Amino acid sequence: MKKFFIYSLSVLLLQGCMVAAKPYTPLLDGVGYLTTKDKPTDIPDTIKESLMTLTDEMIDHFILENKNVFVSAPSLVLALAMTAQGAKDNTLDQMMNSMKLSDLSMDVVNEGLRALQLSMIQKKGIEFHLTNSIWIRDTFKQRVLASFLEANKTYYAPMIASGDFNDPAMVDAINDWVSVATRKKIKTAIDEPIHPLTQMFLINTLYFKGDWLIPFDKANTVKDMFGAHSVDMMAIVENYLYTKQDSTQYIALPYKDSDVVMVIALRQDGKPTSMSQLV
């Protein structure tokens, strides 16, 4: 039996937008993100809890590499959820379990993740751009069910296109999309050549940019030791929400004109802090 590979790529960042490419043909009219002005419905608590659990597992996995990492459970789940629109039976069960959503129906997951996306992109005072895209090998597109495309269009609004995966220009087109979506912070999402068994790429990008409510003065940036390394450290004397629990210190840095805050956790032993400890 011939095997096919379908990749779900979760491309994480703090910045984003979009570009049109040449060597592919759009299949639907999705622009890559939800454009509705509808107010987001409440995000189910089960989805919030699954994202926290998945974040902890991602941190536990990547921390084994003993280097700095930046992870986003929403980005991973959105890419997997788009893929899951074409799954069924045991495959679907395994995908739902990997997303920590096995107790929910696909309809509930889709509605919940749609609400999550809307809550992100409709945040005030910050730039939070989210894009989804699906790239299909041209010789495989006839095997892609219309129901898969329509479900993704309804809940994730990806840009969907097909092209010749043997053409190096297709690799450039996909990477250009990601580069524009991440403001050139991530310039390479896939490498050439594309494996001959790869039939589809499903890509999510997240871009965040916000101004601090209380800006840091660059003149106060100094070199200091962080562990065994000398790094640039911002410095400011201000009043912030701060607490210490056991051996972990927490501080919340608010963004300007927004209800979004950055919460920083610093454990005395240097180990990562779980999401359950932050909320």
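Above is the first protein from milestone M3; the second protein from the same milestone is given next.
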Amino acid sequence: MLIVGESINATLSQVKAAVLNRDAVFIRNLAQKQVDCGAEILDLNAGTGSGDEGEDLVWLVETVQNVVQAPLMLDSSNLDALSAALKICTKKVMVNSVSGEPGRLEILPLLQEYKCAVVALCMGEGGIPKTSADRVKIAHHLYHRLTAAGVAGADIYFDPLILSVCTDIEAGTTAMDTVARIKAELPGARTIAAVSNVSFGLPLRKLLNRTFLSMMVRVGLDACIIDARDKALLSVLCAGEALTGHDKYCSKYTRSFRTGMLEG
């Protein structure tokens, strides 16, 4: 499973302060730490709410690219900010996100120009559908719109939109069913999820996140947006892949053990 490090997010107070104060050391250390812990892509969110998102996102890209080689996920719906940041990215980018909501596909020209991968949210005009069937319908619509615009199927990562089980007891099973159906009905397309949403509002969130991630491995989730510094979470992911046939000969599991990446 592809691991996207979620920690460079300006909605978090420390990161927001670092962005506004141009604290490059803090951002570089955070980027390097995530990569050292196993992140393969780094999510960058520059939405401080009080700065210039375009300038802030460009600064984040420049700062992070100077210290790590990992590809980037640009987490923004601001077309001007995305356009400015994409111009300076040195590797293929994943853009987060498009959806079936009005106006959210205006980003298509940028995706075409820069050959980006993209996160596609399974939601439309009415918000997040209650059922997996309705979420998959939106996935079909987005798949056809995106591929018609030249985006490769393998570059489309559908987000089933995980809600908290605190407010919707079926949230976990709905997300898992959505992933399974997308994998079955849209061969070649991929799936991604922000796993920690499932535990919002509940105690011992890390316990719920770890358990849920292992369940998502079983239904074939391709990528996860997580705190890559959570060694126990990554250990559960690694073990889950070994136990569900996603890690041939358990090679990743044994390699991770030898390099001290796992904890029991």
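Note on the second protein: Strands lie at 2-9, 41-45, 72-75, 94-98, 117-121, 156-159, 190-194, 223-226.
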